[in-house]
Design goal:
The complex is a heterodimer of chains A (615) and B (299).
Chain A (H helix, E strand, L loop, with lengths): L2 E8 L5 H11 L5 H14 L9 H4 L3 H6 L6 E6 L4 E6 L7 H8 L4 E7 L6 H12 L4 E7 L8 H14 L7 E6 L24 H7 L12 E3 L2 E6 L2 E7 L4 E3 L3 E5 L4 E9 L2 E3 L1 E3 L3 E6 L10 E4 L5 E12 L11 E5 L2 E14 L6 E2 L9 E14 L6 H4 E5 L6 E10 L2 H4 L9 H7 L5 E6 L6 H14 L4 E5 H6 L9 H20 L3 E5 L5 H9 L6 E7 L2 H7 L4 H6 L21 E4 L5 H13 L8
Parallel strand pairs in A: 1-3, 1-4, 4-5, 5-6, 24-26, 24-27, 25-26, 27-28
Antiparallel strand pairs in A: 2-3, 7-16, 8-9, 9-15, 10-14, 11-12, 11-16, 12-13, 12-15, 17-21, 17-23, 18-19, 18-22, 19-20, 19-21, 22-23
Chain B lengths: L2 H21 L3 E4 L4 H14 L8 E4 L6 H14 L3 E4 L2 H6 L3 H4 L1 H20 L3 E3 L16 E4 L27 E4 L7 H11 L10 E8 L2 E4 L14 E6 L12 E2 L5 H9 L18 H8 L3
Parallel strand pairs in B: 1-2, 1-4, 2-3, 4-6
Antiparallel strand pairs in B: 5-6, 7-8, 7-9, 9-10
Helix pairs in contact in B: 1-2, 2-7, 7-8
Chain lengths: 615, 299
């Protein structure tokens, strides 16, 4: 028997929970003791007078029952003799859209509820776009509360027409409009002929039993993302994962991405037994014929159709955090089994959820959808989402809080990396530095405005210069007059500010210089990004630690006074956050040390002979 | 119900277990001896075949489990060869806390919730598998498969991480933990049919037999041993009873049944008119009691 996973969605008070409660009730999935509890609850919280309030069967959280709304997605199960159903009842409130997307991501069909009195609303459109974006192809337009509009055929026809016009470009394979009353039970399980003789189509249950379920991409070439390497002893090594497409049998030729190494399938473990064949959707373990290397995040595929790899993509992105997306900031990501670090390099446009219009955007807020360019820090095997959901979907995670903040769908790879070949240069960074009798370094000064970064940096450069070293100082204020003159002080601009200066510092280090960067650089994530650009030991973080009160007392540029007076916005330490380093190479507490002593301290350690290990 | 249904359910559960194994620092599987734990154990064996299960199983022993359950637990551990950890709250044991003397709510709080938190903390487990299913109870229906717990093991139902596709965010900071439910999308009927299909051993109490019982609050309570003090005038009678769910004794009531084979149990389950948790006294402690217990760290 096959299983249909579907969601119910729509605006608040359209009656989603009531509909599911009714479905469970009429397919005899409500037990007697649950019915007793429902009767008691209906009296206590119910909104249906003396009648049973079916919504209370589904709204399981106390906060939901008290407020009479759905906050999070609830999964319910029922079955008819023909099919098994998993229904995700998703919240209608805009602020809980991410929970709605959670339910929709694994669904094969959607019931979009509409209140016959209200017609197509903003939230109907929002949900339709998310349903479409996540690749659901079959939609039932359930026009509910027909009892409250006198079972009017004209009203039903009008709503259907409006919706079909709106959904024209959303790519649904089928849209089935059904007039119903969840409260009275018309056209859910029992036909509603008595009230709506003009409707001759299917009931909702008949639609659910017959809507095509998506077969696990069996027709496609075989692909298996490696989830885990099973190596219990020296005699066995298998690659475990869930087949993302196609099927595989013993003896098949396969190729591993990204390494490109070829092998053959020797044995297959399915359901705890060695078997000859396995198909899409099954969790298996593959034993290959050769001693080849593959690890978590690699993809094993049919040799004739090896899987593509890339590190730059155009993708659709749903932002799910109250904290805005910051282009340029490194986030963690997971695509199939591959963990990576990603940055959104460009927001191409944001989608207006109502009109579908493309709008310009520099950041994304909660529940916003955009087309973006995304850059992975490594090459990942992938397929476009429309071809294979398992190989084209990724989540974005905040590195500090570990919250899941975004959901991405790969459209296609940007061929940047492939087109712009790296020129292998024979004059290397080391060669350039050697000629200057030095080792190239990036000394990254971070600290509050007025903490003494520039003062110490300039002193240090003078000492180094006197020693015959080749140096350069990148100063926050100076760079903002030139390279970064187009940037302001919003969070997004600060991130871009640091990204650019980090890239410049990297070029200068590559030229063999000792670069001193003196930037407030308030966010850990960006300093981490900067560090990631350099080789081990090359990046030296210097925390100029001066308490805010002290900086404010000095106020050499008069900026704190302006910030306190409200003339300067987004000023670090006042109305913008500073995240101190957790493990800087140098921690200079300027309250106890003069700038000269600070510079000396750095110089002394830089000049210390390095321990040379014998190999 | 045929093979494809179980292939999907099985594959999803196996994928979840492997994901934890690939990403967690120190995972553990909570083993409650019941039918769901038995299924979870079988799935774990399959997930890591031909290797052994790469994490220990842990039983939180309230001291009030049926005797047959403890015997079954020890036999299963011996025959299957998994590493078994048992834990009892020392404070509760020292104070002699039990459901009869202290009430079901307090007993559950100390001997299950508090004990579980102590056990997870003392072993430093960062991820714990549980056998809960979404069809069991309303607040469970709302829970993610990877259920993130704040320091102190608190569940915050209003701030659950989005969980899209099969992409599970397993990243946590120090002090945070994750509860993982590989059987989230199984139903009670699925569990029984799978047990029949796979011939999975289960505690004999699930099968109907003549057992000594007394009737309390309209439910049949098993007189397992001297731990159940009889009320004045109460006399155990022999009845054909079995258990749909096995929790703490005497917090779990039996049902009258003649089902002595798996086929008969499946037939009875599919035709049941009451939910399995009806026999669980704990759920009746008050509306939303499960959600409240979960917020405090209960499984």
């Amino acid at each position: 028997m096959d299983t249909l996973r579907f969601i119910t969605c729509g605006s608040v008070d359209d009656g989603k929970s009531t509909l599911i409660g009714r479905l469970l009730y009429e397919t005899k999935l409500i037990f007697e003791d649950q019915l007793e509890a429902l009767q008691a609850d209906s009296k206590k919280f119910g909104t249906q007078g003396e009648r049973l309030d079916f919504a209370l069967l589904v709204d399981g959280l106390q906060a939901e029952r008290e407020q009479g709304i759905t906050i999070d997605v609830a999964y319910r199960f029922f079955a008819t003799p023909n099919r098994r159903f998993v229904v995700a009842d998703t919240p209608g409130h805009e602020q809980y859209t991410r929970n709605m997307a959670t339910g929709a991501s694994t669904a094969q069909a959607a019931i979009l509820l509409i209140d016959a009195r209200k017609g197509v609303l903003t939230q109907t459109k929002r949900h339709s776009r998310i349903v479409s974006m996540l690749g659901i192809r079959h939609v039932a337009l359930a026009v509910n509360k027909m009892d409250l509009v006198g079972w009017s055929e004209a009203i039903f026809d009008e709503i259907e027409l409006v919706y079909r016009r709106f959904a024209h470009d959303l790519g649904f394979a089928t849209i089935t409009a059904i007039p119903l009353s969840a409260l009275e039970g018309h056209n859910i399980v029992d036909p509603g002929h008595s009230a709506m003789p003009w409707y001759e189509g299917a009931t909702l249950l008949v639609w659910l039993e017959t809507v095509p379920t998506e077969q696990h991409e069996r027709a496609r070439p075989f692909t298996l993302p490696v989830q885990w390497v099973n190596r219990p002893n020296l005699d066995f090594r298998g690659f475990s994962g869930r087949i993302a497409g196609g099927w595989v049998k013993s003896g098949d030729s396969v190729r591993i991405s990204p390494s490109g190494v070829a092998s053959t399938v020797k044995r297959i473990v399915v359901s705890g037994r060695f078997q000859g064949v396995a198909t899409a959707g099954q969790s298996i373990t593959l034993v290959l014929g050769d001693e080849v290397d593959a690890s978590r995040g690699d993809v094993i595929a049919t040799a004739a159709h090896p899987i593509e790899c890339a590190d730059q993509f155009e993708a659709e992105l749903l932002w799910m955090s109250e904290h805005a997306l910051l282009p340029g900031r490194p986030y963690a990501a997971l695509i199939h089994s591959k963990s990576a670090s990603v940055t959104i390099t460009h927001i191409k446009h944001r989608l207006d959820i109502n009109s579908g219009a493309r709008l310009a955007a520099r950041t994304l807020g909660l529940n916003e959808i955009a087309a973006v360019n995304v850059s992975f820090d490594r090459s990942v095997p992938f397929a476009p989402y429309t071809e294979n959901k398992r190989l084209g979907a990724f989540i974005v995670i905040d590195k500090l809080t570990n919250e899941t903040v975004g959901a991405g769908l790969i459209r296609f790879a940007l061929r940047r990396a492939a087109n712009v070949h790296w020129q292998p240069l024979e004059v290397t960074k080391v060669a350039r530095a050697n000629m200057k009798l030095q080792e190239a370094r990036c000394l990254w000064f971070t600290g509050l405005s007025g903490s003494g970064k520039s003062t110490i940096a300039n002193l240090l450069e003078k000492r180094l210069h006197a020693d015959g070293k080749h140096t350069y100082v990148l100063d926050g204020d100076n760079v903002r007059h030139g390279l970064n003159r187009d940037l302001g002080f919003t969070e997004a601009d600060r991130v871009e500010n640091i990204r650019r200066v980090a890239e410049v510092a990297k070029l200068l280090v590559d030229a063999g210089l000792i670069v001193i960067v003196a930037f407030i650089s308030p966010f850990r994530a960006e300093r981490q990004l900067a560090r990631g650009l350099f080789d081990d030991g090359e990046f030296i973080e210097v925390f100029v630690d001066t308490p805010l009160e002290e900086c404010e007392r000095r106020d050499t540029k008069g900026l704190y006074a302006q910030a306190r007076g409200g003339e300067l916005k987004n000023f670090t330490g006042i109305d913008s956050n500073y995240e101190p380093p957790t493990a800087p190479e140098f921690h200079l507490r300027t309250v106890d040390m003069t700038p000269e002593a600070c510079a000396d301290e750095i110089l002394r350690q830089l000049n210390e002979p390095r321990v040379i290990e014998f190999e | 119900m045929d093979d494809t249904t179980f292939s999907d359910l099985e594959s999803e559960s196996i994928e979840i277990m492997r994901e934890v194994t690939a990403t967690a620092a120190k995972p553990v599987m909570l083993y409650s001896i019941g039918k769901d734990s038995s299924v979870m154990l079988r799935l774990a064996q399959k997930a890591f075949y031909p290797g052994p299960i790469p994490f220990p199983l842990m039983h939180i022993d309230t001291g009030w489990k049926f005797r047959e359950m403890i015997a079954f637990r020890d036999r299963t551990a011996r025959e299957t060869g998994f590493e078994l950890i048992t834990y009892t709250n020392p404070r509760g044991a020292a104070e002699g806390i039990g459901p009869i003397t202290h009430g079901s709510a307090y007993h559950t709080d100390v001997m299950k919730t508090e004990a579980l938190k102590q056990a997870l903390d003392s072993h430093g487990f960062d991820v714990a598998f549980g056998g809960a299913r979404r069809d069991e109870e309303k607040s469970r229906a709302k829970e993610r498969i990877f259920s993130f717990r704040a320091p102190g093991h608190r569940w915050e139902p209003k701030a659950q991480r989005p969980e899209l596709w099969n992409l599970y965010n397993t990243r946590i900071n120090a002090g945070e933990t994750i509860r993982v439910f590989p059987l989230s999308n199984w139903t009670e009927a699925d569990i029984w049919q799978y047990i029949r299909l796979e011939n999975i051993p289960i505690v004999p109490l699930y099968f109907a037999a003549k057992r000594p019982v007394v009737k309390r609050f309209g439910q049949w309570i098993l007189v397992d041993d001297h731990r159940l003090p009889l009320e004045p005038g109460e006399k155990p009678e022999m009845r054909m009873v079995r258990f749909r769910t096995l929790g703490c004794y005497p917090l779990t009531a039996g049902i009258e049944s003649s089902a002595t084979t798996l086929d008969e149990i499946v037939a009875e389950t599919l035709g049941a008119t009451t939910s399995e948790r009806q026999g669980r006294i704990i759920d009746h402690d008050g509306a939303g009691s499960m959600e409240r217990k979960k917020q405090e760290g209960y499984f």
